[in-house]
Amino acid sequence: MTKLSDADKKSLGIFVKEREKAFSPDFAAAYQMIENKQGIDLAEIKKTKCLEIGYASGVRVASHPTDQLDYITTGNPEVVIQGKTDSLYYPLNPESFDRIKDENVQMCLNIVFFSILYPPRLVVVRGASGKWEVVY
To answer: CA angle 67-73-92, nearest 5°?
Structure first.
């Protein structure tokens, strides 16, 4: 892909916003995203209950408005989405992470939150269905 239309940018902005909803009880969408990651032990994450504990501690996620996002075409099917000035996603209240005292839960939540669910940028492709999908 070498150029995005305004409709593409709008649908990518919606995609970014929709992803925020994964971090909410019952966490089914978040667990599905985690399950698709190679080398990640979903059973251990569920056992730790780090998503649930994080949410109960006040952890919430946000992304920048669409006019503050960069959409980078690669000349290949992939499109990179990132914030113009910093990470694509960010915690609404970073101090809520400090409320979690169990180091294992903190580590689990930080890895899942910042590396899997809400990384600094997303690389997406348009799937066969016409919907955007995260590839890495």
So the answer is: 40
